[in-house]
Amino acid sequence: MIIKKMNSEIIEITKNQLLSQLFLCVIFSITLFVVQNNYGLVLPIMLFGTLFLYLVSPTISFIYSFIFIIDPMETFKLSAISIIPILLCFTFFILNTKKCLLILSKDKYLKKLMRLCFLFTIYQVVISILLLSQQDFYYLFQNINYWLGIWILIPAYVFIILDRKTFFISLMLIVLIIMIFYYLSFFGVYNFFEIKEFRRSNDDDTLMRFFSFDLRQITKIFVYIFPLFLFFPLKNTFVRFWVVLIGIMVYVSVLFAILRTEMVYLLLGALLAILISIKQFKSVGRLKGVALVFVCVAMVLYLLPTLLDTIIETTKLALKGGALENDESADHRINVQLPVLMKIIESSPFFGGGLYSVSYGATTHYLLYDIPVLGAFGAYGIIGMLIYYSRFIYIFSRYKVLEMSQILFDQFPIECLLVNGLLAYFISMITFRTLHINIELAFDFGMPEFGLFIGVYFGLIKILSEKRLDS
């Protein structure tokens, strides 16, 4: 048994735990290799891997099953059987229902949020029924992640409460493997997935960009947290090293793609996490904190000297389909897609036209992707989006009740930094990440990831709240 002391908390890492993480890495890597050219093996490999890892660790099995839901390298393409990995994520909950319900019942704040999420889920289904549209009802159940994905928050919360260490290390290793495979594909060593090349400008002299939006939010969240793990005091050098490494790998991938706006948004997210943490924790030192903020601000200003103009332009892109200068998609979004979307909104401004109404099948346009804010209102209406946005009230108020402090950070630094990083991410979802406001409503992997983050966030806050009371 290897025993490490991290401040006041003893972390035990046994050989069995190390072996179980090795099993996860091997099985996930084999899965990516095999499934790439043998789609027919997706289901048996998924079932075998989940069952085997469940015998090793239910927490690790959950992380493995979750990856099939979000399909981070777009290799699984489950489509009609996407309900299966969701059910697999609930394996532990189904087999231990009484225990899990007891855990959930102890968090009154989570129960309030779950009621709101349930209301939005019912709203999604009921609107489809009221529309009396066979296409909309079929489309909704064909794309089950849109309305069931958020409920990943339940097993995520339970596993954080029961085994947060295994949860975080497993997720970290999965993301590390994804990034390694991404770079192997990027540099042409082995093509695990296609690296698309394109030009966003009509100018033929512009640099070719590499499509990196394949990377999911479970990878990009490391950009939010790695400065915290780098500059704030941590005795656990193992976690510090790998979080920082993964965060840099993710950010460099966006840098290679020359996605300047995305680069700035990720930096702003990291800066927000730093500011929140500096306010709460004094151990970083005032001089060091000021220097850290200065570096982040300088990088933002260097990347985009006209930051304000760029934010305004990208806000227009999200709100009404505008685009940055020389972007060849601007005319198409303004003159073609926007009129189509406005007709949908005008036909039912309060209740929306349903998910199918803004889909490619109904309009031959990707309205939710290209014009995400208005696209979401077109699908769910003003009432539906008010219900959806209300969940952020519970997310932010839960943090306020926690009363984060330096004493709590000294005892549980990793948990505190993760909570602050997730808080910064949630704030960014409804503020400056204009290109991505409502994007979790557009992509089928968006809601499951959002659910995972909410479960982790509420679970960590519950743990910290109890530890604060005990101390």
Protein model, in words:
The model is unreliable at 1-11, 200-213 and 318-327 (pLDDT under 50). With 471 residues, the chain is an all-alpha fold. It has 23 helices and 4 strands. Strand 1 and strand 2 (9-13) form a beta hairpin. It is globular and about 60 Å long. The strands form 2 sheets. The chain has a two-stranded antiparallel ribbon. Strands 3-4 form a two-stranded antiparallel sheet.
Brief characterization of the structure:
The chain is mainly α. It has helices at residues 15-37, 42-56, 58-70, 83-89, 91-95, 97-105, 108-130, 134-142, 145-148, 153-186, 217-231, 237-256, 260-280, 286-303, 307-320, 330-347, 360-363, 367-370, 372-389, 391-402, 406-411, 413-429, 446-470; strands at 2-6, 9-13, 197-198, 209-210.
Supply database-style keywords.
471 residues; mainly alpha; two-stranded antiparallel ribbon; two-stranded antiparallel sheet; 23 helices; 3% strand
